[in-house]
Please model this.
Amino acid sequence: MSKITLHRRQLVKEILKGADDNLLVLAGVGSSNRDITEAGDRPLNMPLWGAMGATVSMGLGLALAQPTKRVLVITGDGDMLMGMGSLATVATQQPDNLAIVVLDNEKFGITGNQATHTSPRKKDSTDSGAGADLSLIAKGCGIEDAGVVRKQSEVAQLVRDARYKKGPLFRVVKVMAENLESVMPPQDGAHLKDRFRQALLGKP
Model:
């Protein structure tokens, strides 16, 4: 297994650079919502609170409700592991405007860096040591365009795919486990909902 060298914050900045009103961004509970905030808080960003495992489901609903917009879900491996069933529903619905990027540091970062199921297991005589492969799970659910990004040389293509390629697409990005500054988004869920809705639909 190659050494993990990608930095999540730098990666998210590259993905979101130049985001316009056509891009709707949902970020999972924990590090991902801090990542999109550090890249630049905007009304069409929806950082989730208290919704562990629900990010992809919410992204799917938004993509179906807003077919002319690009919907980008940015979440972590812990959140994705808790909501894997949503991938089968994404495959059933086939929204061509939905992209899912999973930042996989193989840790539950917010609760103390406990290993997630994507982390390599301890080897014994009967164990290959490989952790859960979220990309293969997505493909098994029926999302044909699924893959893993490990190297800096693959990031430019990842950015293009996440922003513009016909979906549904699913990318796991192996990122370093880092102790990063908490750049907190607003924590009032009603405020986040209202500002997102008004930015998308206009004031009532």
About this structure: The mean pLDDT is 89. The longest strand covers residues 70-76. Strands lie at 23-27, 45-47, 70-76, 98-104, 107-108, 114-115, 145-149, 169-174.
